Amino acid sequence: MTGIMQGKRGLIMGLANDKSIAWGIAQACAAQGAELAFSYQGDALKKRVGPLAEKVGSDLVLPCDVGDGASIDAMFDALGERWDTLDFIVHAIGFSDKSELRGRYLDTSLDNFLMTMNISVYSFTAVLQRAEKLMKNGGSALTLTYYGAEKVMPHYNVMGLAKAALESSVQYLAEDLGKDNIRVNAISAGTIKTLAASGIGDFRYILKWNENNSPLRRTVTIDEVGQSAMYLLSDLSTAVTGTIHHVDAGYHVVGMKNPDAPDM
Ligand code: NAD
Fold it and tell me: How far apart are the CA of 259 and the centre of ligand 1, in A?
């Protein structure tokens, strides 16, 4: 099938480089005909995001730091000048102080707790407050979460709480926006080596553990997350909202270590 996203305009937030989950999603949507805009955090990322946007035919690349409401407003104002409607939005953003993504959750500081919740949870709501006005014909919004929201994962700490709150916000947002035919979903992605993930303690061990113990006996790729995201962002999923869709090689169903897995 081709052209599934033909005629749709989408904003991709959270692209840092070609390893980003946002890049897998952007490529999958562009391959199906979507017209894309991108936001980037800070000038340092502009030089990476600009050329990637070009590769998928986009020259609409806007700065946005989601920790700053004025920056989100400015981004949506600039987007609204070019586009009168928006069909979908991808929020692939999360952040916590890396010194607290190791050791005990118990030692989390208040400052980092609040900052993590702001950037990784509230920002999705803040973005949708602005996007709602542009989604005049309905729309689809997607965020990215992780299994550490449901179960304790080593070193994930405050980010686990943030993802749990993000998943709950998906449900509340789905209810609030459903009347306007705006759907809100999340993908719970398996572990993937990205810039953000490499800040998590023992990340390589976690990656290997997932590879050895997931039902599919492997990890997942940004392309696979991209394909599933494209489904949730497209008209293939018009009755799907408020859901957390696992794209994790099945890891979320595992109760204990695979007996054939090598010792680690
Ligand atoms: P990434 O480092 O490529 O992307 C994270 C993005 O967040 C970056 O583009 C960064 O600029 C952006 N960001 C951080 N703070 C920001 C701010 N204040 N304003 C605007 N943007 C900001 O890493 P990724 O793994 O692709 O992460 C994307 C999402 O996927 C995150 O929510 C992450 O938690 C989630 N996720 C990742 C994995 C994994 O294993 N990589 C698994 C499940 C979920």
Answer: 33
Pocket of ligand 1 from Cβ distances under 6 Å: 14-16, 20-22, 41, 45, 64-67, 92-95, 119, 144-146, 189, 191-192, 194-197
Residue 21 resides in a domain: yes
Residue 150 lies in a domain: yes
Residue 259 lies in a domain: no
Q: Say what the pLDDT of residue 2 is.
A: 85
Q: Is 156 assigned a catalytic role? A: yes
Taking the centre of ligand 1 as the mean of its atom positions, its distance from the CA of residue 76, in whole angstroms, is 20
- Domain CATH for 44: 3.40.50.720
* pLDDT tens digit sequence for 236-255: 999 999 999 999 999 999 99
Question: Which of 23, 39, 142, 144 is the best mutation target for the ligand 1 pocket, counting ligand atoms within 8 Å of the beta carbon and taking the most?
Answer: 144
User: Which of 114, 194, 225 should be mutated for ligand 1, with most atoms under 8 A from CB?
Assistant: 194
pLDDT digits (tens, 9 = 90+) for 87-103: 999 999 999 999 999 99
Amino acid 264: pLDDT: 82
**What ipTM describes this predicted complex?**
0.99
User: Domain residues for 136?
Assistant: 9-253
Task: Supply the pLDDT for residue 141.
Answer: 99
Instruction: State the pLDDT at residue 263.
Output: 85
Is position 146 annotated as part of the catalytic site? Answer: yes
What is the tally of structural domains in the chain? 1
What's phi and psi for 108, nearest 5 deg?
Answer: -60, 135
* 216 falls within a domain: yes
